[in-house]
UniProtKB/TrEMBL annotation:
This is Molybdopterin molybdenumtransferase. Pathway: Cofactor biosynthesis; molybdopterin biosynthesis. Keywords: Magnesium, Metal-binding, Molybdenum, Molybdenum cofactor biosynthesis, Transferase. Belongs to the MoeA family. It catalyses: adenylyl-molybdopterin + molybdate = Mo-molybdopterin + AMP + H(+).
């Protein structure tokens, strides 16, 4: 059987260098920058007030005290957005609001709390220093400065920076378009009545959600039955929508394992067994005239979920222009013993609970129901407990590696 590492590397071999495109600022959220972004403006763009108060000449306040306050005539009122406030001569001052341009002549701002709030004449009860409460032009970003590097993920903070430097469109690597298709004659759409031998289709919903959580644009096609012609026609019809196709089901040894049957005939998809539990039967390759990458996950729901996290997630990250890193992991202490088949690396759904204190080790509790058909524990799990290939029993109290599931 193939190792988890080798299979991950083989899948990454499917990824071509993503092509950059220019997207509107709002649509760029969650994508990765294709080029560095430089600022065409300085931030702040002009010297402006950090406080609601009075723009003054600092020298006019020398020696001011509560008993002998400085008294200055207020000659102007400067709100934020004032295009060109008149210059302030020595001995005078202007009322000024936060973000308003500091007028020529003035060299400091005094917060209103240090004054009597006068509108015709103001009393100021303490001295100040030049530059006080003035936000200088360019002190955050200077014109021409690089504000975001190529490869940066556009999150909320980056959105703020892009808008603040006036970008309307951004050069990014677009979200990969992922098509999800499940197979199985027994499947029924949730919400419909179930017949004998039938089950609700859950894989396509689960995998579509997981791909969305990885920043992809997902087309969930739903499912098709176990008819080879129907499977092939459906796949062909979906290719125009896909940078990558993910199927679930029909890849094991069964007589009706239709994905394997159909794609083996095409000769461009390889089916293999990976030394992992769950998720042993796997397939990957390309289909169609544009050699669209396809990853065929096993049908057991937990197998599909775990294979997505181990094998598909790095591919989607690479397609987005991110490093194809595996899930982050922690070392945690097992609360109950676990067992695992020899020769396969097990990934057990588990709950990791935070450690108290700086030296405390987190605890990990594996779910009781670990069958690859037993979905229920997916609902609470925030981690996948790893049991190495050569280990069959791990006692309670032992330290183990736990992969942290995204978004939990
Ligand atoms: N003789 C052998 N049988 C099996 C082997 C094996 O090595 N030898 N491997 C087992 C393992 S491990 C797995 S994993 C599964 C993989 O099965 P397939 O990929 O062929 O998937 P199906 O046969 O279509 O379905 C398996 C199972 O999952 C349910 N299923 C499928 N699709 C969905 C869906 N969209 N939503 C919900 N549930 C789904 C399906 O009803 C079956 O119960 O093969 C083992 N067998
Ligand atoms: O490898 Mo299968 O994924 O156990 O159920
Ligand atoms: Mg099967």
């Amino acid at each position: 059987m193939k190792s988890v590492e080798q299979h991950t590397l083989d899948l990454l071999g499917l990824v071509a260098t993503p092509e950059a495109t220019e997207l509107d600022l709002l649509q760029a959220h969650g994508t990765v920058l294709a080029e560095p972004v430089t600022s065409p403006v300085s931030l702040p763009g002009f010297d402006n007030s950090a406080m609601d108060g009075y723009a003054v000449h600092a020298a006019d306040l020398a020696g001011a005290t509560a008993e002998a306050p400085a008294r200055l005539p207020v000659v102007a009122d400067i709100p934020a957005g004032d295009p060109e406030p008149a210059a302030i001569r020595p001995g005078l001052c202007a009322r000024i609001m936060t973000g308003a341009p500091v007028p020529a002549g003035a060299d400091a701002v005094v917060p209103v709390e240090w004054t009597d709030g006068g509108e015709v004449e103001v009393r100021i009860d303490r001295p100040t220093a030049p530059g006080s409460f003035v936000r200088r032009r360019g002190e955050d970003v200077s014109e021409g400065e690089t504000v975001l590097r190529a490869g940066a993920r556009v999150g909320a903070g980056e959105m703020g920076v892009l808008a603040a430097v006036g970008r309307r469109t951004v050069p990014v690597l677009p979200r990969p378009r992922v098509v999800v298709l499940s197979t199985g004659e027994e499947l029924v759409e949730p919400g419909r009545p179930l017949g004998p031998g039938q089950i609700y289709e859950s894989n396509s919903y689960m995998i579509a959600a997981a791909a969305k959580e990885e920043g992809c644009e997902v087309h969930r096609h739903g499912f098709v039955g176990d008819d080879p012609a129907e499977v092939w026609d459906t796949l062909e019809g979906l290719l125009v929508r896909a940078d990558v196709v993910i199927t679930t089901g029909g890849v094991s040894m069964g007589a009706y394992d239709v994905v394997k049957e159909v794609l083996t005939r095409q000769g461009t998809v390889e089916f293999t067994q990976v030394a992992v539990q769950p998720g042993k039967p796997q397939g990957f390759g390309t289909i169609g005239p544009d050699r669209t990458p396809i990853i065929t996950l096993p049908g057991n729901p937990v197998s599909a979920f775990v294979s997505f996290q181990l094998f598909v997630r790095p591919v989607l990250r690479a397609l987005r222009g991110l490093a194809p890193d595996p899930l982050p992991s922690v070392r945690a202490r097992l609360t109950t013993p676990v067992s695992s088949p020899l020769g396969r690396r097990s990934y057990l759904r588990a709950v990791v609970a935070g450690a108290a204190g700086p030296d405390a080790v987190p605890e990990v509790s594996p779910a009781v129901r670990q069958g690859s058909h037993q979905l229920s524990a997916l609902a609470d799990a925030n981690g996948l407990l790893v049991v190495p290939e050569e280990v069959t029993e791990v006692p309670a109290g032992a330290l183990a590696e736990v992969l942290l599931l995204p978004g939990r």
